[in-house]
Amino acid sequence: MRDVAIETRNLHVHYGNNHVIKGINLKIPPKVVFALMGPSGCGKSTLLRTFNRLIELNPNARVEGSVKILGKEVYSPETDPVELRKEIGMVFQYPNPFPHLTIFENVASGVKLNKLVSSKDELKERVEWALKKAALWDEVKDRLKDYPGGISGGQRQRLVIARALAMRPKILLMDEPTANIDPVGVQKIEELLFELKGEYTIVLVTHSPAQAARVSDYVAFLYLGEIVEVGPTRKVFENPEHELTEKYVTGAFG
Ligand SMILES: Nc1ncnc2c1ncn2[C@@H]1O[C@H](COP(=O)(O)OP(=O)(O)OP(=O)(O)O)[C@@H](O)[C@H]1O
Fold first, then answer.
1. What is the pLDDT of residues 52-67, one digit of tens each?
2. Same domain, residue pair 72 and 121
3. Which residue's C-alpha comes closest to atom 7 of ligand 1?
4. Residue 2: predicted pLDDT
5. Is 86 in the pocket of ligand 1 (CB under 6 A)?
6. What is the pLDDT of residues 151-178, one digit of tens each?
């Protein structure tokens, strides 16, 4: 079962009467960057939020079908969403470190809350490890007691990534993580994805075909709540099977 990290079967999501995910079957292999790309409103964020049950925060959302993560049925009554989310880190479009916590405390917070370490030294090691993994350590190691308001948007986003990595998740869900970041920051995060993918399964939502082409190993093209095409990124970009995919990846619409 380890050749598939995330699997959906006949997955549907409705918001009230609005049917936005329409029978999605997807297999995401482990330890790759898997991009969900498509135009605004096609259902990328909704699909991503079914993976960690964040979708349940919308009282009008209804999920049908199956999602399995690392072999576990996400919507089974036995699955505790809080436990599930410990294995699944999530990064959003707006970098959202806790403004009232220092850089150190931001990375340490989840580790402390979940009692993942047993001493202060271990906590320090874990924070340093996560900041290094997120390629941020060199930039903040002398500022660990500062608040994140003083660092750039790109650095704040890598801080959020460090906070997620400190929990040692197996999966990282990223919803347009570079949408609000300057070009240098975007490049750093894209390089980071490249570094991380050997160890984590990364699902990246992007409305940018160029970004999907640059960073992903596999890509699914969503349109109006359905998967038009899915496969190895090179194949989908260089030799798409569907005319709609070709139009999208060549920028004819978006
Ligand atoms: N909480 C909600 N209640 C009702 N409808 C919603 C809700 N969230 C999203 N939708 C609708 O569901 C559809 C899919 O939205 P979703 O945000 O998943 O798409 P997306 O592809 O991620 O779009 P974007 O790139 O603009 O973020 C859209 O028509 C949207 O208006």
1. 999 999 999 999 999 9
2. no
3. 15
4. 60
5. no
6. 999 999 999 999 999 999 999 999 999 9
Measured between alpha carbons, how far is residue 146 from residues 105, 150, 225 in Å? Answer: 10, 7, 43
Q: Is 240 among the domain residues? A: yes
Domain stops at, among 168, 199, 229: 168
> How many structural domains are present in the chain?
2
One domain for residues 192 and 203 = yes
Q: How far is the CA of 157 from the centre of ligand 1 (A)?
A: 23
Using CA atoms, how far apart are residues 142 and 11, in angstroms rounded to an integer? Answer: 47
Query: Radius of gyration of the chain from Cα atoms?
Result: 18
**Would you give the DSSP letter of residue 32?**
S
Question: ipTM exceeding 0.95?
Answer: yes
Tokens at 72, concatenated: 């576990």
Residue in 12, 15, 58 to alter for ligand 1 test, most ligand atoms within 8 A of Cβ = 15
Same-domain pairing of 160 and 185 = no
Nearest ligand 1 atom, CA 222: 21
Residue 51 pLDDT exceeds 90: yes
Q: Looking at the structure, do residues 160 and 181 belong to the same domain, yes or no? A: no
Residue that terminates a domain, selected from 168, 184, 211: 168
Whether residues 105 and 48 share a domain: the answer is no
CB-CB contact of 87 with 171 (8 Å): yes
Number of H helices, E strands in the chain: 10, 10
Structural domain span for residue 61: 1-87+171-254
